[in-house]
């Protein structure tokens, strides 16, 4: 379970999309959200767009691995598709905030590798949010005000990437993914393999 988090506008979603293009063995966990879809977003691809009532039902039924309220909107990770993918031995990519990352680590522990993505500067973050032109001036101001709080959680992550260049950031995260895949504790059947090999020597 590879978690990417960042303050809004730092490039997390762009990096996640590029990673998906380059890493066919990884699946994206599609979150549910109660916010309205942006013009370039598709239901079931970028998010599952649901209303507040359905969000509360899923929370109450224990159908979400993690959930959070951000800017008056609910976000959460449906458990069933994640469990299915992990059971099939596939890696899962999560594009979630620090609250969700903390919940995943608490529940899944050693199965999670987490990366916090920082913007190269505060001014660059502001420019990206304005250039994105998907939110009102008021929402941009709220996102900037919240960025400091979000960034304060960087030490909770296994890795930190400063996103000055998207392609370089993607290369760094692919290196993290490659290393995490061969971590001894994640190698299913490794102990049996080594035991069998030693018996043949």
Spatial arrangement of strands, main beta sheet: 2-7-1-8-9
Approximate strand percentage: 15-25%
**CATH fold description:** Rossmann fold
What is the CATH domain class? Alpha Beta
Q: What is the β-strand count?
A: 9
CATH superfamily: P-loop containing nucleotide triphosphate hydrolases
Task: Produce a short descriptive summary.
With 201 residues, the protein is α/β, with parallel strands linked by helices. Helices cover 46% and strands 19% of the residues. Helix 1 packs across helix 7 and helix 5 runs antiparallel to helix 6.
Structural write-up:
It is a single chain. The chain is α/β, with parallel strands linked by helices and about 200 residues long. The protein has one domain (about 1-180): P-loop containing nucleotide triphosphate hydrolases (Rossmann fold), CATH 3.40.50.300. About 45% of the residues lie in helices and about 20% in strands. It is built from 8 helices and 9 strands. The strands form 2 sheets. The protein has a 5-stranded parallel beta sheet, sandwiched between helices. A 4-stranded mixed beta sheet has the order 4-3-6-5. A hairpin with a 2-residue loop joins strand 5 and strand 6. Helix 1 (about 10-20) packs across helix 7 and helix 5 (about 120-130) runs antiparallel to helix 6 (about 135-150). The protein starts with a strand and ends with a helix. About 25% of the residues are buried.
């Amino acid at each position: 379970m590879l978690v990417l988090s960042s303050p809004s506008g730092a490039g997390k979603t762009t990096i996640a999309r590029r990673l998906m293009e380059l890493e066919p063995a990884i699946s994206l966990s599609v979150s549910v959200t109660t916010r309205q879809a942006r013009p370039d977003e598709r239901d079931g691809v970028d998010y599952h767009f649901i209303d507040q009532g359905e969000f509360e039902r899923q929370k109450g039924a224990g159908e979400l691995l993690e959930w959070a309220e951000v800017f008056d909107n609910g976000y959460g990770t449906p458990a069933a598709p994640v469990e299915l993918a992990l059971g099939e031995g596939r890696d899962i990519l999560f594009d979630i905030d620090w609250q969700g990352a903390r919940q995943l680590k608490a529940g899944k522990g050693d199965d999670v590798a987490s990366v916090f993505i920082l913007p190269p500067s505060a001014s660059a973050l502001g420019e990206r949010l304005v250039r994105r032109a998907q939110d009102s001036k008021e929402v941009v101001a709220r996102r900037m005000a919240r960025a400091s709080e979000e960034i304060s959680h960087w030490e909770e992550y296994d890795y930190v990437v400063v996103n000055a260049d998207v392609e370089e950031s993607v290369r760094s995260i692919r290196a993290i993914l490659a290393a995490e895949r061969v971590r001894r504790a994640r190698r299913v059947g490794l102990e049996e393999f080594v035991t069998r090999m030693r018996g043949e020597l």
